[in-house]
Each structure stands twice: as C-alpha cells, then as structure tokens.
Amino acid sequence: MLHTVYPLAQAATLSTPLLSASSTTSSSRSSSDTDESPATSFRYDFQDLNFKISSLPISCSQSYKSLAVLSGHIGSVSCLALCGEFILSASQGKDIIVWQQPDLRQFTKFGQGDGSVKALVSAGNKVFTAHQDSRIRVWKVSRSSENVFKLVDTLPTTKDYLGKFMKQSNYVQTRRHHKRLWIEHADSISCLAVSDGLIYSGSWDKTLKVWRTSDFKCLESIKAHDDAINGLVSSNGIVYSASADGRIKAWARDDATSKTHSLKGILEGHKDISLNSVVVTQDGSFVYGGGSDGYVMGWQGNKDFDSWKAICEVKAHKMAVLCMCLMGEYLCSGSADRSICVWKRENNGGLLRHMVIKGHEGPVKCLQASPVRVGGGFMLYSGSLDKSLRVWWVPNYSHDAARITSSVEKNSAVWQGK
Predict the structure, then answer these.
(1) Composition bias, kind Low complexity: at what positions (predicted)?
(2) pTM for the whole structure
(3) How far apart are CA 74 and CA 92, in angstroms?
(4) Which residue has the higher pLDDT, 5 or 65?
C-alpha cells in the first residue's frame, strides 16, 4: 500500500552540523607525476550550517544539492563499495577509482581488462570485482606495498581449470553446440555477495555459483532462475537472488557441514517485471526488492526463515528501480528516473517516504550508505550513468519532518578527477 505524504503547514528551519567544503590545492606536480596524486582536492570540516526545510509536498520536491560531485570515470559508474577508509567506484575494467575519506580525494586507480565492472564487494583485506568477461578478480589491500590494491587471483583459478578440464562430465551445455566447464559463467557476472567464508556470484547466464574464500575453489553451480540474475544479498546464512524473471529466491545450506545449497523459498514480484535489486535487514526479518515497474516490494520472513509473506509495495519511482541500500531504519532506492528516494521503515516493515533527492543527470545505477553517523544523519554515495559519483547527507528528522523535502541552500563541491 502506498502511504500518502503530507506537507507541514509551514517551513521549519534548523541548524545541523554537516560537512562543508573548503578547497585545498596541493603543490604543483612535475610531468612525471601519476594520476594517483590529484592536483586539487576538497577537504570537509564539521561546521554548523543552516538548512531551510521546504514546506513543499514530496511530489513537488526540489533538487537536493550534493555535498560533492566526484568526477573522473571514463564511463558510467556501475558499482560502489566501502573498503575501510576508502570508497571504491567502478566503471570500465581499468577504471576502478579509490577515493579516500573524509577529504574525498582520488587516492589511486586500479583494475584490469576492457569490459565494464559489474559488481564490487570487499571482505577483510580483499576486494572482489565481477566483470563483463565472466570472470571474478581478487585484489589484496595492503598499505605495506606500493601497489595498494594488488591482483592476487582470477576466478575460476588456473588450478580449478586444470583439475576439471580433462573430465567430460565437468562440462555443461550453455547454448546449442557450445559447452563450458560448470565452474565458468557463460555470461556477464552481474552481482556478488560474500558471507561465512563463501563468495556468491550471480550472472546473466541464470546461474548462481558458490566459491570458497580460502582457496577460491568453485564449490557449486546452481541453475537458479529462468532469466538473468540482477542482484544478490546474504543474511543469517541465507542468500537471496533477484532476477529478471520477477522472483527473489532464498537459498541456504541445510547445515554448516553441508556442501550444497537448497531452495528455501520464492518471493514473487509483480507479473511481467524484472527485479533489479534486493536488500535484507540486518536481522533478516524483512526483504525488499526493486522492480522495473518502479515499485519497491517488501516481504517478512518467519522466525525459521523458510517462509515469507508480502507486507508492502510502494510506487517508489516513475521508472525502473535500479538499485537499493539499507542503513538502519532507512531504505534508499535509485532509479532510471535519475532520482533517489529515502524511505523510513516502520516496525511492521512498511515504508514511509522520508525525502526525494535529485541531482544526477542520468539514471542512478548504484547506492552505498556509510555506517558512520554524521551530525544526526548518514552519508550516502550514488553512482550514475552520467559518469559521476555524488555524495549526500541524509538527515534523521523527526517523524513529521520526514514527510517533507529538504533543500540544501549551499553550493555543492565538485572535484574533477584526472
């Protein structure tokens, strides 16, 4: 059910500590300097800034100015990840940019290959990247090395190939007159998740593959969906896969010693739509899917996580929902309509519209929220097909103020990467 959003009777004004931009310019560089040392960066300091809250209803929202616009990608920003003090944003294979917090300067670049990077995920001191060439690359993060992000392996590994290619039973037919080893994806890898010592990869080839983080061996390949897999998320031992077939499927091992995953449940979306994104709350109670029809749908699981019931659906955007992320009681959705909606979750899993953020000049492809609380709110990062990464601050207003749109009357900081 779509909740109606009401404007307040009059505008309110409050002072909130935020991050304000003050330009700092580094010393001039010689022609031999690399791209890893940008000439200009913006450093952010905590200051008290006045924010005027508009009394316009949410449907008449104004543009919410970003704190910073980080430019430097040669193509559309396809995915984001937090890795310790860094924010990683990816576009093409050799175009993964590392931004250092809190000053948001370009720290370095890394990558390999020419195809687009479809997914990024970090776990411990490793970063996993999924690529259009159907391979997963593993990068080790080390401050002791000059090459901070060092490529350590590519999946499937050479050892995995050599152990399987001689046996005919290890080949599966991917299309007519064409076979591949079952450890290989036959199409682009679209999403990744890491949990309990395992890496999960979802692909446009409709399969879900499971890899072991200790030796990167492929343990299992599941024919998971009837169409492309677009999103993966893991919580409480259960992996949820969202697909263009309009379903979210829940997978889990029967016990900790089991080597295979089985289907625990199917969460049905609207008919004839694609589910492009899936998120799950920290306790695993609620699952949300974003659809190509602009709806965000929610399901609640029982205490054993073997049954789910639909609890809400909201018309979140005018066009397809492309990405979502969760931060505590807030859900953020990004869309092909170039907007970001922030929703406050109710105790029963329902969604109340908190604010609408506009500013991107292209579809919003990826979102990432920072767990670090800042001035009564949190930082939100968004990547778009307009080739930029934008930084936003999402305030945690009272319940009444959550029903109106905020307009930041400050210029956004723009940093142009080289």
Answers:
(1) 20-31
(2) 0.80
(3) 7
(4) 65
Domain spans, the chain: 1-25+38-72+319-418, 76-268
| Number of Cβ atoms within 10 Å of the Cβ of 396 | 18
Of 77, 74, 72, 78, the closest CA to residue 106 belongs to: 72
Q: Using CA atoms, how far apart are residues 354 and 180, in angstroms rounded to an integer? A: 48
Question: Closest Cα to residue 306, out of 254, 278, 265, 267?
Answer: 265
Q: What is the DSSP letter of 93?
A: T
pLDDT tops 80 at residue 193: yes
Residue 84: strand, helix, or coil: coil
Per the CB < 8 A criterion, the answer to whether 202 and 229 are in contact is: yes
What is the rounded distance in angstroms from the CA atom of residue 343 to the CA atom of residue 306? 27
Residue 312 has pLDDT above 70, yes or no: yes
On the CB side of 70, how many CA atoms lie within 13 Å of its CA? 27
Average pLDDT, stretch 353-362? 95
Architecture of domain 76-268: 7 Propeller (2.130)
Looking at residue 173, what is its pLDDT?
83
What is the average pLDDT score of the chain? 81
pLDDT at 381 exceeding the cut of 80: yes
| 3 state SS of 357 | strand
Given phi > 0 = left and psi -120 to 50 = alpha, else beta, which region is 237? left
Which range is most confident: 122-126, 175-179, 315-319? 315-319
3-state secondary structure of 403: helix
SS3 320: coil
Instruction: Single out the residue of 232, 163, 171 nearest to residue 199, CA to CA.
Output: 232
In this predicted model, what pLDDT tens digit does every residue of 14-72 receive, in sequence order? 222 333 333 333 333 333 333 333 332 233 332 333 333 333 333 334 446 789 999 99
Q: What is the CA radius of gyration of the chain?
A: 22
DSSP label of 163: H
Contact 390, 375 (CB under 8 A): no
Largest CA distance in the chain: 74
C-beta of residue 172 within 8 angstroms of C-beta of residue 164: no
Percent of the chain with pLDDT over 90: 64
- At 388, the amino acid letter reads S
